[in-house]
Amino acid sequence: MLRLIFGRLEKGKKMIRIGIAEDNINLRKSLLNTISIFEEVELLFVAVNGIEVLDYLSNHSPDLILMDINMPGMNGIEATKKVKENYPDVKVMMLTVFDDDDKIFASILAGASGYLLKDEKPAKLMEAIEECIDGGAPMSPIIATKALALLRGQQAEKTKNAEDYGLTKRELE
């Protein structure tokens, strides 16, 4: 069992318990180094795929999982869906190199609470973790822009379909 606590915590601050799912050893080491900077983070586990994440969740209760997308065995999107089905209170933040529309959309539909690219600065990562814990939906700027474009495209399609049926704006609402 891996249980690391980094640094000392200020009085009155709550530890944020996290799990990490990352199969690339170099990216995993980099992420662990980044996380070790923050004293309010307690690392409960490190998994290399979605199957391991689910195994760890049977014995650990993280507040948040930093989830890679492209992993062997069970990818991060599938794992996110299973985590949210079985452990709905656990937040999942995608932390990945993928910024394509399909992966963003699939991650959000699977239940991800946030979506960051791996090149974010350490301070931004910690800010996003805290935002996610507080109920927000942090995203890297490029991801937020793409997500908005996806939503606009869907809304335009809905409006187009409604116009095809002769619905008024009020009926559409």
Q: Which percent bin holds the helix content? A: 40-55%
Listing every helix as H and every strand as E from the N terminus to the C terminus, the arrangement reads EEHEHEHEHEHHH
Q: Specify the structural class.
A: alpha/beta
**Biggest β-sheet: strands ordered side by side in the sheet:** 1-3-2-4-5-6
Query: What is the molecular shape?
Result: globular
Distance between the termini: 52 Å
C-alpha Rg (nearest Å): 18 Å
- Unreliable spans are 1-9
How much of the sequence lies in strands comes to: 15-25%
User: Count of DSSP E strands?
Assistant: 6
Q: Counting H and I runs of at least 4 residues, what is the number of helices? A: 7
Which whole number gives the mean pLDDT? Answer: 85
Largest sheet: 6 strands, mixed
